[in-house]
Amino acid sequence: MKIGFIGLGIMGSRMAANLQQQGHPLVIFNRSPEKAIPLVKKGATQVNTPAEVAKHADILFTMLAHPEAVTETALGKDGFLVHFTPNSLWVDCSTVHPSFSREMAREAHEKKIRFLDAPVAGSKNQAQQAQLVFLVGGEEADFQECQPLLETMGKKVIRMGENGMGSAFKLVLNHLLATSMAAFSEGLILGEALGISLETLLNILVGGPVAAPYLALKRSKLENDDYEAEFPLQWMQKDLQMVSLAAYESNVAMPLGNTAKEMYRLCLQRGLGEQDFSAIYAFLKEGSGGDRVAS
Ligand code: NAP
Hints:
The protein is an alpha/beta fold. It contains 13 helices and nine strands. It has a six-stranded parallel β-sheet, with helices on both faces. Strand 1 (3-6), helix 1 (10-21) and strand 2 (26-29) form a beta-alpha-beta unit. Bound molecules: NADP nicotinamide-adenine-dinucleotide phosphate.
């Protein structure tokens, strides 16, 4: 079975490498072709368009930035969807909103292609170490067929329900990640302004009951003022945009999520989009007068 992989960014490059390491032959495409080089050196076949991936692969994984990138790659000029052999399986691991996943499922089914939404929990390091958690929406039989491949890239694979339900759970997760990072940053900045050192704040809060456990993984970024991206801030802002859209579609009020969405938007306007989303701490600190202690 030949596997196609489209989208070789921070996450996709590492996920594809794990498939390759387990001996799966890959046919790959990335908009910026140079990102394919490490996989090509280890035997992957690089092609020039998404359409060519579909011509060669029985199962295709996409790991793309946002719904627009998925639409363009699947349905645009040289898109892959019309070029699949009927009954092929498309597994979209990109973080998108549930109604978009359902729309892609409809597009796929119309062309006799099977579809799973399978976004992931975990970041750059978990992708590297095949420790991702896959949240899958789609038919049980398709899920079972795909499960061994997902297990090659992750530690846990959960079927959440029908198409769209994987994306639904993923948005809940990222709402919590985004708002907790923003709240934690504000707490640190308040503590520092009141004269408590960042070191003391982190020593006591990280690992304690009021801070989310994942914040331990962000500690060195805050301490070293080094926000090299594990999860780019621009995609967190995009995810909050989709949380807001999904809430609108479901008639749910999310005042906190929408405030966080605009906070990350301000970070984007300050040029922090390609930094890790924890850079919201640096943004808020700058806006609150740096490390000045109020007299
Ligand atoms: P990334 O490094 O920025 O990679 C994004 C990928 O999308 C690249 O392959 C990029 O191609 C491609 N892309 C963007 N716009 C495109 C377009 N218009 N047409 C075709 N391709 C396009 O981001 P990432 O961190 O790997 O994230 C990928 C997905 O995983 C996102 O949906 C993100 O929300 C989700 N995710 C990320 C993390 C994380 O911690 N990083 C964790 C969980 C989920 P180029 O290389 O040409 O730019």
